Amino acid sequence: MTAILKVNNLSCRFGSLLALNDVSFSVDSGELVGVIGPNGAGKSTLYNLIAGALSPTAGEIVFDGRSVTHLKSHQIARIGIARTFQIPKPYRQLSVVENVMLTAFQREKSVGRARALAVAILSEVGLTDYVDAPVATLTIGLLKRLEVARALAMRPKLVLFDEIMAGLTPTEVATMTKFVGDLPARGITVIWVEHVLYAIMKTASRIMVLNRGEIIANGVPAAIARDPAVVKAYLGEEMNLA
Amino acid sequence: MITLGQLVLSGIFIGSIYALMSMGLTLIFGVLRVVNFAHGEFLMLAMYGAWAITRLLGLNPYIAAIAIVPAMFLFGAIVHQIIVRPALDKPHLVVVFATMGLSIFMQNVALMIMTADLWDVPPIFDHSVAIGPFYFKAELLVGFVVTILCTLFLRWLIRSTYLGKAIRATVQDGEAAMLMGIPVQRIFLITFASGSALVGLAACMMMPLFSVFPTVGLNFVLIAFVIVVLGGMGSIEGALIGGVCIGVVQSMSSYYVAPAYGQMFYFILFLLVMIFRPNGLLGQKGAATLGIND
Amino acid sequence: MPGPHPYQLVSARSPLVWPRRGGSLSIFEIGIFVACVAIAMIGFSQNLQDIVVLTFLWAGLALAWNIAGGYAGLISFGHAAFFGIGAYTSTILFLRLGLSPWIGVWCGGLLSAGFGAGLAIICARLRGPFFILSTLAAAEVARIGALNWASLTGGPEGLSIPPVAGIANMVFASKTPYVFLMLAFLAAVYAVTKGLEASRYGYYLYSVRDDVDAASAAGVNPLAVRTAAMALSAGLTGIGGSLFAQYFLYLDPTFLISPDLSFQFALLAAVGGLGTAIGPVLGSFLITPMSELLRSYLGSQAAGLHLVIYSALLIVVMLYFPSGIVGALGRISGRGRNL
Questions:
Q1: For residue C157, is it within any domain?
Q2: Do C319 and B91 touch (CB under 8 A)?
Q3: Among C253, C18, C20, C6, which residue's Cα sits nearest to residue C152?
Q4: Which residue has the higher pLDDT, C63 or A39?
Q5: What is the per-residue pLDDT for B45?
Q6: Angle at Cα A54 formed by Cα A52 and Cα A57, nearest 5°?
Q7: What is the pLDDT of residue B292?
């Protein structure tokens, strides 16, 4: 198994705040890696660094063998890394399918084919009924699914999911869990930040735990659940065992 | 050397008056996150008012301030309620177009009523004031003193009074402020009206020094924008520093370079600041690059 | 909270009748085009033909502005600078080098496009009101430059094009050829706009306008998109400026590069409907004739009255009908959707 993503000694400092401190890990192609941690642990910062929205103060990021540390967001997207946003950021003046078409243009250059691809992706995430709906009519659960659809329309090699379960009903959680769990088999490597631990525990081959900008645990779900350091980090945190 | 000293000092004095004119703009942006594109026309309106009271009642603009400042406060409150407030919860370009429209509206109403002629008031003092080897118009010095007093007053207000704290809370986090019981809508109203009143005061200081005509606002609003950008949007002290800088730049460039190109200088300065330090010298970090996303 | 929005979504269930974004021409649009050609062919009086010329020209310019302001979300109140650059370029090339305006028009357009691109790059990091202020400042720099660089631009006296009629000079004795010229300009800019809507580049514009972070994450390069949109918008505005110069035969920097003119482009687009193709056209068709008629009836007696009316109109439209005429019509007929 080759490492598709390697993060080496990554640090990110905002003024006096060290959001990420010397973080190193690697992700193999075809893995589904969960990332958990209390609020403020640095998960969003990590995503922003990988996705090119931020530049690290130290360290490097290597994707598919090439250094991508200082690439901008759109360059990162073009080499095959997709991401969702924790607070959905749809294009409000476009319809649902048009939202997905934007990302689909990465794969299909014609408007017609991009639309077809977008419609196909939307049916995969169960949004067929909303294809031409204005985005403003969507509930948060549907918007989260739209985020997933947008990311997948790019046919990425690596996708970074950011809390895509928040606001979903239990049935939606179950469906989405299965859906994401199937992605590695389709050739998509997944990194998944999530608070709904049930979903990750079920699907991830490996879980990393972040706390205060550092990785405090990195192993199979069963081991993580028993790790005292992890439990301590979460003391006082509400464990969502949906 | 005397010339240089004269230029620099008079630049500082006139710059402070420009700063007074800009404080309202920066205050409004700091709190409401709105650029009032009609700011120059508020100035024009107040200047016409000062002119009218002076010429028709035989008073002088400084005394007229007693009426103009509250009148401008009221005017600002009305504009806020009718135009700004309905636009606040809409996409940002609505308030941009609305205040831009207001600007053109006021310019042309003034044109229709007052014609394009330049009106001015007689000088208030009949001799200049000597400071060391330099001579300055007394009106210039009065403006400078008033600006300094105003800045100190505003600093005290923002730092020490409940209103000031409420304003700072609203700036930092409007939603949290609302949850704390701060009447955010009223803070917006008071801020907008106060910014307007400040412009009124500035107009009274400027009337003895400049003529008023319908598009006078356009000249000064661009100066005000440059000052506010230089000093940092939302910073009163920044406006003062920015104003002084601009005053000195203008004073020196009108003397050493052709006056016609003098105007171009501070636009270029503006664009340079926008490129290299869009947050200005003392402004809120990220103000320029955050902007408002529709 | 959904409510009418300036950047409205017009997508019809009945595409034939109503303009549809990116779709083929609707009956409505074809009807308008036919009406324009008919109006162009009718031999009106000189005064009325003058109004028709200006209506078509401002419609094309409002459309050009709309590419940046409506589609890309780059609100500019300095577009008159590009108008002036185009006008001066073709005129100076004609007067100094004898270059035919038919070629000079393109040179003006290219130079304006270059300045547009430059402005977009310089102001790349600026958002919202800061960007708008920068466009204002840039236009003022251009105006002062034009006013004072007398050796190039003739300074405050401006430049005059000799009224020697001839196709090669793009100067015509009667107004009718000008009517067709401006209509051709309008049709061309309209075609560009529709073509943009139908292509993925149009979508790139919307994405950068609506959520630049999401657009970046989708692989869209915001700087490249904004620069291209501004360059296209500026270039088309420059071409319009050259055409105006050929019609008016006199270039006055105070009028050509004025904030009032910049405001007018934005006004027409906003009142008609930002981010739609037919919007700016309808905006001009509604406002320009009224403006010209008011100006001729009231003359200098009520100088500024027409602007009083139009600015009041803009305020009302923006506060209560932000999707403009197109949005209002859409809501009435139940066909448009407004977010």
A1: yes
A2: no
A3: C253
A4: C63
A5: 95
A6: 120
A7: 31
Q: What is the pLDDT of residue B99?
A: 92
CATH number at residue A168: 3.40.50.300
A14 touches chain C (CB under 8 A): no
Mean pLDDT of C57-72: 95
Q: Find the Cα–Cα–Cα–Cα dihedral C294, C299, C304, C305, rounded to 10°.
A: -40
d(CA A174, CA A205): 18
What CA–CA distance (Å, rounded) separates C188 from C180? 12
- Judge whether A205 is closer than 8 Å to chain C, CB to CB: no
On whether residue A50 sits in a domain, the answer given is yes
| Alpha-carbon span C181 to C152, nearest angstrom | 28
Closest of C58, C306, C305, C283 to residue C182, by C-alpha: C58
Look at residues C116, C132, C122 and name the one whose alpha carbon lies nearest to residue C232: C116
Domains: count for chain A: 1
The verdict on residue A41 lying in a domain is: yes
Q: Are B288 and C311 a contacting pair at CB < 8 A?
A: no
CB-CB contact of C243 with C181 (8 Å): yes
Q: What is the pLDDT of residues B186-233, one digit of tens each?
A: 889 999 999 999 999 999 999 888 888 888 888 888 888 888 888 877
Quote the minimal CA–CA distance from C336 to chain B in Å: 19
**DSSP bridge partners of A214:** A211
pLDDT at B129: 80
Does C217 map to a domain?
Answer: yes
CB nearest to C126's CB, from B91, B107, B274: B274
- The pLDDT tens digits of the residues spanning B257-294 come to 776 666 777 778 777 877 777 666 665 554 444 433 22
**Chain length of chain A:** 242
Interval A121-136 mean pLDDT? 89
Which residue ranges of chain B lie beneath pLDDT 70? 1, 259-262, 278-294
Backbone phi, psi, residue C102, to 5°: -60, -30
pLDDT band with cut points at 50, 70 and 90 for residue C12 = very low
Listed by start position, the domains of chain B span: 23-290
State the fold for domain B23-290: ABC transporter involved in vitamin B12 uptake, BtuC (1.10.3470)
Say what the pTM is.
Answer: 0.88
CA-nearest residue of chain B to C210?
Answer: B294
CB contact under 8 A, C311 and B105: yes
Pairing of strands A32-36, A17-28: unpaired
Residue C281 lies in a domain: yes
Q: Give the Cα separation of A163 and A34 in Å (integer).
A: 11
C117 falls within a domain: yes
